[in-house]
Model the fold of this input.
Amino acid sequence: MLRVRLLGPLTVDLDGRELELPASRPARSILALLACDPGREHARSDIAARFWPDVLDESARASLRTALSSLRKSLGEDGARHLLATRDAVALDVGWTDLAEFERLADAGRHDETLALCRGPLLEGLDDDWVLERRDEQRERVGAVLAALAAEAEGAGDLAAAVAHTRRQAALEPLAEEPVRALMRRLAAAGDRAGALTTYGRLQDRPPRRARSPRPCGRTPTRRRRPAPSRARSRSCSPTSRSAPASATTRPSACAARTSPSSATFSSASWAASSRTSGTA
Done:
């Protein structure tokens, strides 16, 4: 059975034997993309446009074929059985992923087991646009699990555990106010008035959180073709052509600031630190 771990660094094993990841970065990222949605068919044109947006279709498809060949080899002799590629689409036949297991356990309310699956941020070491977006979404899901664990512990009268889980949630989502306010309340309820006041001071010193702006880079990029030269274009480039109005300046891409402060600093080291704080694995 092919097993893929995504909650932390990407790892793959087949029948209990860990496989070496593809050497090329695009091939590793494509493997991760397919494993995040096991069995789902992805159009070749969409993958090519996502990973090679600045080249023509023919070149992008050739690069995709090379990456898929590298990925197939990394899966060993059964690579063709697990990597399902047709003329128009690509999919990965995966028996188990920790991401799918995380969602299953979370839906079942088995929060301790859910949290034990997390070895770090989603796909640590990869920084593609789609990875950053999925990582933000996964961080929010982990925060929800921690909030549920804290509420369960508080309801059971275990304020120490409730505080530990809330501390970890606040460390995971440093710009979110609700975990910090919950931490203040639980510290005060546990009799740690000094800790509650210190947490309040940190909350007051933080800059206000900005609303998340829409991300046009979240969509599959559209490749722009280089226009063929024409006489009209040549005339427009001549010294006598009219210059563009001053207002027609190029605006910076919205993708330039796609990484939030929390995702920029979040790593397995910070994950481990928050785990130690809460006393959980």
